[in-house]
Amino acid sequence: MEGILIISAFLLGSIPFGYLIALFKGIDIRKYGSGNVGATNVARVLGKSYGIAVYVLDFLKGFIPTLIAVKSFGIESWVTTAVGLSAILGHMFSPFLLFKGGKGVATSSGVLFALSPLLGFLALVLWFVIYKKSGFVSLGSILSAFAVVYITGALGYPPNVLLMVGLVAVLVLVKHKSNIKRLLEGRELRV
Fold this sequence. Notes:
mainly alpha; globular; cell membrane; transmembrane helix; EC 2.3.1.275
């Protein structure tokens, strides 16, 4: 059962909702804006309501399988964090998009809320504060991803959760390398 759940989480995470919604509107989102298939680029190109829809769907890709794992195996189980990480990796490296994908923020937030509503809420609040102060979604995403690592350790979450959020923070950083370059050059777009 564990293997099936992990593979299912990856496949669910791989569904490129941003790409599919934009395609339904007649465009290949990869050719517009930042070229990313995530909620932020969809919001910039198609409008906020489409961006919100993509965020919710990408959030659920992480939330649903991780919640099933939490209920089945508990938060302390490595299976649970493997399921969450698989959903995030599926989103970031979708086989349906030739192993390209989103930056993993919405899916990661779904995983966090399933693991711990408190951890998910704190991450969301941090992201929102950083975004509102800076005006940059990318900066909020990067800084809150690393802040979650600290919070996870400080609040005494199990080692498997701490390791997973650490890995995810590094992946989020890597996926945002073009944003970081634009931030440093003063060319990053605000939403």
